[in-house]
Amino acid sequence: MKPKIFITRMMDEQVAAPLREKFDVRMWESETEPVPRTVLLKEAADAEALWTVISDRIDREIIEAGKKLRIIANMAVGFNNIDIEAAKEHDVVVTNTPDVLTETTADLTFALLLSTARQLTVAESELRKGNWKSWSPMQYTGMDAGGATIGIVGMGRIGEAVARRAKGFNMTVLYHNRNRKPDAEAAYGFEYRELDDLLKEADFVVLLTPYTKETAGLIGARELALMKKTAVLINVSRGGIVDEAALYNALKDHTIWAAGLDVFETEPVPLENPLLTLPNVTVLPHIGSASIRTRLAMMKLNAQAMVDVLEGREPENRVE
Ligand code: 8YV
Known about the structure:
Number of domains: 2
Shape: globular
Number of helices: 12
CATH architecture of the largest domain: 3-Layer(aba) Sandwich
Order of helices and strands: EHEHEHEHEHHEHEHEHEHEHEEH
Helix content: 25-40%
Distance between the termini: 31 Å
Strand order of the largest sheet: 8-7-6-9-10-11-12
InterPro entries: D-isomer_2-hydroxyacid_DH, D-isomer_2_OHA_DH_cat_dom, D-isomer_DH_CS, D-isomer_DH_CS1, D-isomer_DH_NAD-bd, NAD(P)-bd_dom_sf
Domain D-isomer specific 2-hydroxyacid dehydrogenase NAD-binding: 110-288
Low-confidence stretches: none
Bound molecules: 2-keto-D-gluconic acid
CATH topology of the largest domain: Rossmann fold
Keywords: Oxidoreductase
Number of strands: 12
Pfam family, one: 2-Hacid_dh_C
Domain D-isomer specific 2-hydroxyacid dehydrogenase catalytic: 6-319
Largest sheet: 7 strands, parallel
């Protein structure tokens, strides 16, 4: 009997087809409905590999149901959706997809930054609604990115890629990170700041830190109050890093100028989320890594990791 792989979303057939030759590949074939928990539990029970995405909660119950489980390959660099401790206890390897998405996610971060700063989505929707009736000097005006100060919270691979783009816009780059990056400071002139100082000085605060116990709720009412009235907050990491209720108040009361969000506390975002009612918020449906080339590269990395583990080899990108 071929080992079973359960795939929780529609995997591209160019990646899935070679897997089918060696394994019994089962797939949740819906682009609109996420795999129900009951199905996930049932399928995990006799699967040797699980291919998952960030919105699949792979907790202890699923891992313990997976009596034959040997690998969980997660299609993301972040892996806060998986109980890593439970996986370790049960000798289940977890792999992720770093590097291949770095530049694509940095592009999206910069696109969201510019779009939020210049109110592109508001301006476009006004035009489409027929509300652009006359040209006026201060209509649809926003904030300049060129020459501004950017503060990057989480200077990992994606943070550095964003910082390099910022240099191209002649921005001053401040960063906050668990560890200082002396090489990047020397090579590019990035300047380290404590978080509070970064929040006070930056025109653009960009969140790129992983979601952990330490970073959950990192940006709350106190932190937002430190930011400039003209500042823009960009979050492309995980929604839970920001206290959404506090952010809503800061944006509604104009104690900060705008926010660009690719990620939310609850995803997909319920339409009741009050942030959606504010004009000074630009929202995207978690598309940081969503270029065709990158998404295929991520799937291929996951597929190779599953083949490696099921054939007894050490995979690349094992999460520690
Ligand atoms: C994923 C992401 O593409 O890599 C991450 O951590 O959040 C995105 O790049 C997306 O969440 C699909 O799992």
